[in-house]
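Lab meeting, item 3. Inverse folding demo.
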């Protein structure tokens, strides 16, 4: 978890700007309570795919010597394609990065290679920790829809912190509604 140093939507640097401001580039609002959780890819996660590939590659010249050559080539091509796919996904993850950002007006997410999405706090009922696989669940008001945030937090404490920060924003909005209702009554 960290404070915003660059705009989650357009990557414009926010360093040197006031704690509560709007992104000069795209107008995204943020304040001193805004936080972002990013998933940083770890190269050691590529160890097992690399190991399995090397294993298949080396054994296909030994064990598979008796099997027809075209099967050996097919296995090699498949495993090479699979290895490339995993590396490609990793590069995409590094290039764009998954994140969840708690902003004053909205929850901003980018969970895959697509563009980031924004959910206004008013559309969220509550947020909870999802223990396995580690993540968070967003309960949306609309038709009891649920949205999972996966692959952003690396520790349970991070997910708990996220839920805490998001809950503060949701309850703030609710308090705002109540006070608004009271002024209407008087
Ligand atoms: Zn921006």
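The presenter then showed the designed sequence:
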């Amino acid at each position: 978890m960290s404070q915003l140093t660059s705009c989650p939507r357009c990557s414009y640097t926010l360093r040197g700007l006031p704690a509560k401001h709007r992104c000069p580039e795209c107008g995204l609002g943020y304040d001193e309570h805004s936080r972002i959780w990013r998933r940083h890819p770890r190269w050691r996660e590529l160890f097992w795919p690399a190991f399995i590939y090397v294993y298949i590659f080396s054994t296909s010249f030994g064990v598979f010597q008796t099997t027809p050559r075209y099967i050996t080539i097919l296995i090699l091509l498949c495993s090479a394609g699979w290895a490339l796919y995993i590396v490609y996904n990793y590069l995409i993850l590094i290039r764009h990065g998954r994140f969840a950002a708690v902003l004053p007006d909205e929850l901003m997410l980018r969970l895959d290679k697509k563009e980031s999405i924004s959910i206004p706090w008013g559309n969220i009922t509550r947020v909870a920790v999802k223990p396995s696989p580690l993540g968070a669940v967003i309960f949306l008001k609309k038709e009891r829809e649920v949205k999972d945030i996966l692959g952003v937090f690396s520790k349970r404490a991070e997910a708990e912190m996220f839920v805490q920060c998001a809950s503060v924003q949701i309850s703030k909005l609710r308090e705002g509604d109540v006070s608004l209702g009271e002024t209407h009554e008087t």
